[in-house]
Amino acid sequence: MRLHNLGFPRIGTHRQLKFALEAYWQGDSDEKALLSTARQLREDNWRLQQEAGIELLPAGDFAHYDHVLATSLMLGIVPSRFVQSGQSRLDLEFQVARGQSAGGCCGQASDMTKWFNTNYHYLVPEFEPQLAIKVDCSPLLAQIEEARALGHEVKPVLLGPLTYLYLGTYTGNKLELLPQLLAGYQQIFDALNRDRVNWLQIDEPILGLELDEGWKKAFRSAYSQLRQGQLKLLLTSYFASVDHHLDLIASLPLHGVHLDCVAEPTDIQLAIDILPRHWVVSLGVIDGRNIWKTDLEALYQKLEPIYAQLNGRTWLAPSCSLLHSPVDLELESDLDTTIRPWLAFARQKCQELALLKQALLSGDTRAIEDYSAPVRDRLQSSQAVNPTVRDRLQNLQSFTRSEPFDVRKSRQQSLGLPLLPTTSIGSFPQTGDIRHIRAQYKRGEISRDQYTRLMQQEIESCIRKQESIGLDVLVHGEPERNDMVEYFADYLEGVATSRFGWVQSYGSRCVKPPIIYGDIQRKEPMTAHWLSFAQSLTDKPVKGMLTGPVTILCWSFVRDDLSRDQVASQIALAVGDEVQDLIAASIHIIQIDEPAIREGLPLKRSQWGAYLDWAVTAFRLSCASAPSEVQIHSHMCYSEFKDILDAIIALDADVLTVETSRSNMTLLDDFRDNAYPNDIGPGVYDIHSPNVPDQEGIKRLLTKALQVIPAERLWINPDCGLKTRTWPETEAALKNMVASARTLRAELVAQQEEAM
User: Fold this and answer.
1) CA 553, CA 494: separation in Å to the nearest integer?
2) Quick check: 657 and 678 in contact, CB under 8 A?
3) What pairs with residue 314 in β-bridges?
């Protein structure tokens, strides 16, 4: 039996990668310093895994920004607009990711979207008819040599050719590019052979999807063409069962396969019966995406007969890369002492594998029995059940608003908004001063009254800046919020937050998912006092900002003893209570963000319907009590909506804002084809890039939007919240946005007058 890992968190125990990246981008450090930090992180990661008991370590799972982008760079598949003479590889990487490098050159960054059904974002490969492949796998080879020099046995990790091709964009049939792509992969295989690599982990997570015959045929063709040499291929898939593709997998020239045994029910016996007898079978039995301690005793009972049957061909691993887990529970000294024994982070998950292996090899289960005791304690804990919450859900009468959109839109004319109203998505720059004030309050260095006054000063400053810019609908800027989910978690019973439980979302952006361990209800109002103060400062409408139930669910570590739809409904009731408080505070525009609604989709399309039914129900429940005069907005970003547009329409938000600037408004083609009936605000400002859009560029995007959306239903806004930007960038961009809106508004009014 061998223990291996598919990948480890890149960011470091204290987010060292984040701070090194941002220092480099800001010009406060150089390339040498960034690369030194990255090398130290890899060394630390290998050491942590080996000390925990992992025998075959991953190499190549580390990336400065994103592993899909790293694959594009390895293959040389980079759009020509990014290539500059004398450009370093590192600056090219950040040019593609951010639209700007340390050298300051600007351009439209590559599109970014969610990695399957996770909150991790990847940079979408852009394919042209003739792929200008120029392979450079020296960074991967360098990581292998680093590990070897430290005495580690490593297994390189490579994103497979079919998944890489599937995830990219191309105007034609992507499969026609496969022969060119395989030529590049062959060069990588040849280089790994020359470097005497033994095992290669080749990731093909699209095998969890329900692939059509064309893609299944492409798998057979691709893997039969690739000359493996001495390489042994471990085909790896995750996030879903591959039971439906076992015959396909068994037909490929491989040496082993990894099965995610956690994400969905997996028939391990069926896999053993179908797969070739000489293959390694890697069982992903430790949940790589959640933080609950594994019941190793129950797992042992399941695995013991399988281990005996496989007769030395068993490998054990987490279900997927531990990229999606926090690094080390040992850092969490402040967590509730009841909850902490229930948890396991990335380092502890590796240790779980070692304990499980020891028990399987020796037959002595005493250690895993002791280890698993807190698992049973959690499932029996009184903290998990709140009868009041369950009774309230049981007795619900209404899940929808009382009047249809056209009636609501008429009643909302009282808001007095102009044609093409302008607004932002919610958050404004989180300055160092704001973060310092929050830290002081958390450490008890300032009183609650002092904290409130300081936050009110920030809110007033934000309101005044928006008035000066000329926005039509204002926001309070969210200075009090550390994160759009974690902030709300602090006000919810049944939810805990950690101190160091960070995971990477993209690049230097890290999030700290809350831990949902029990039934959920509000402890107290969450936002109304801040919004009431903001509205008192201005005659313009101030928009209330809430995170929706599906997003809070998807961006948390969720209890596994209750169905996700039940948890979502509990959150929806808590959000709905806050909606009522905002209305009572004279807030008549309320945004309930649901950027995660698409990422919650199961990988298999046949399972989408059930998920979308309860996800839509949860959102509608959160705003069901809002009267027609109150305008409900929702926001979604970095998602492909075409396949779920019926569900998005069913949300019945009065205004939907979406990310479209990086895709140059191509996302709106989906709305053209499906006639989105309510108001919509396509983003015109890419907030993930430091580039400031000019007025002509914004107007060009708006003109394209008007070809799809009638002017009376079009809103103008950035792609997303602005917390990661600086104030100079933000003010310049929003001034250009408002100026473009006013110019276009005047032109439309003039046209209407001429028509009369």
Assistant:
1) 13
2) no
3) 281
| Residue 104: predicted pLDDT | 52
Is 114 known as a binding-site position? yes
Asked whether residue 635 is marked as a ligand-binding residue, the answer is yes
Considering the four listed CATH numbers 3.40.50.10440, 3.20.20.210, 3.40.50.300, 3.90.1150.10, the one that applies to the domain covering 418-755 is: 3.20.20.210
- pLDDT over 80 (residue 732): yes
The amino acid that residue 665 corresponds to is M
Whether 2-380 shares its CATH topology with 418-755 is answered yes
pLDDT value of residue 657: 92
Residue 350 is labelled as binding a ligand: no
Q: Where are the domains of the chain?
A: 2-380, 418-755
1-12 pLDDT per residue, tens:
999 999 999 999
Contact 225, 621 (CB under 8 A): no
Contact present, 579 and 625 (Cβ < 8 Å)? yes
Beta pairing, strands 492-496 & 314-318: unpaired
CA distance 146 to 284: 27
Residue 186 reports pLDDT greater than 60: yes
In the structure encoding, which two tokens stand for residue 432, read together? 């160092």
Annotation-wise, does 509 bind a ligand? yes
How large is the average pLDDT for residues 291-308?
97
**∠ at Cα 689 (72, 714), nearest 5°?**
110
* Amino acid in position 184: G
Tokens of 158: 């490579």
pLDDT of residue 640: 67
Structure tokens, 408: 């609501």
Is 427 annotated as belonging to a binding site? yes
Max Cα-Cα span within the chain: 88
State pLDDT tens for residues 640-694.
677 888 999 999 999 999 888 777 777 677 766 667 899 999 899 888 788 899 9
Residue 176 assigned as binding residue: no
Rounded CA gap, 57 and 47, in Å? 10
The residues assigned a catalytic role are 688
Known binding residue 462? Answer is: no
Contact 275, 249 (CB under 8 A): yes
DSSP string, 431-466: -HHHHHHHHHHHTTSS-HHHHHHHHHHHHHHHHHHH
> Strands 112-114, 121-123: parallel, antiparallel or unpaired by DSSP?
antiparallel
N residues, the chain: 756
3-state per-residue secondary structure call for 45-78: HHHHHHHHCCCEEEECCCCCCCHHHHHHHHHCCC
C-alpha span between 323 and 398 (Å, rounded): 40
Q: Encoding tokens for residue 438?
A: 């929050």
User: Which CATH number describes the domain made up of 2-380?
Assistant: 3.20.20.210
